[in-house]
Structures are given as structure tokens and as C-alpha cells.
DUF3093 family protein (Kribbella steppae), 151 residues
Amino acid sequence: MGTYRENLRVPVSWWIIAAAATVTLFVITAVPVGTFAGALVGGTALLLLVLFFLQYGGARVEVDGERLRAGRAVIERAHLGKVEALTGDDARHAFGRDCDPKAYLLLRSYVRGAVRVEITDPRDPAPYWVIATRHPDRLAAALTGNSVARS
């Protein structure tokens, strides 16, 4: 069986935007009220953004010989059925219009690919999981035990 590990970290562009927003908040507060107030507002905003980015971007997708972990959810591989790598519109629709409301979703808006994994455990209310991934073919290969050429 294949193994796979991926951290769904937020992209660098988000960090750049957060830095620009923090500087903007500092300036628009510091000019009329003072440097201390600007530093307080900017520092608070920066702290909140960093904590959010680390938590939101800390989602991990892991496959080993026994289980699949997607974010906080874990399932034994014995309960996995059909696996489908999704890209483009297929991935976008899997998280939107084609999604079963009972499905488990690990969605990250900045990740374009996904894998849909059928759940065969009759006790599990989710019919399938849709997992965001930057490498849908590699994740699908790890889940099915097939190999895929790396690009």
C-alpha cells in the first residue's frame, strides 16, 4: 500500500496580503491617534492573521498502510471504496453543486485539485470524502496502491 503526506499550507500570496493589511491598519491608526495605538492595532491584526493562517493552513492529508487522515478526520483503509482524482471543473463541482450534503469535505479554496473517496463503512454517515490536494494523482495512487509518475 502507498504512503502520502501533504500539508495544505496557505500560499505565500496570502502572507503578503496579510502583511500589507497589517501595515495599512498600522498607518491608518497611527496617523490620527498615535504610534502606540497603530502598533497595538497592527500587532493585534498580525497576530490574529498568523494564528488563522497556521490553523487553517495546518490541515494535513496523510495515507499510510492502515489509515487515511484528512484534517481532523481519520478512517481505516479497510473502509475505503472507489477513489477518483479530480481536477479543474470536476474538483470545483465536487465541492459545490455535485456535493452530497452528508459528505465529509476537507476544502481549501487555494488548492485546485481534489480526490473523492467512497466510504464503505455502513456506520459512517458520510457516503464519501472529498479531500483538497495539490497532487490528486499522487494521493489517488497512494490510496489505491498504484504508482504514478512524478512530474
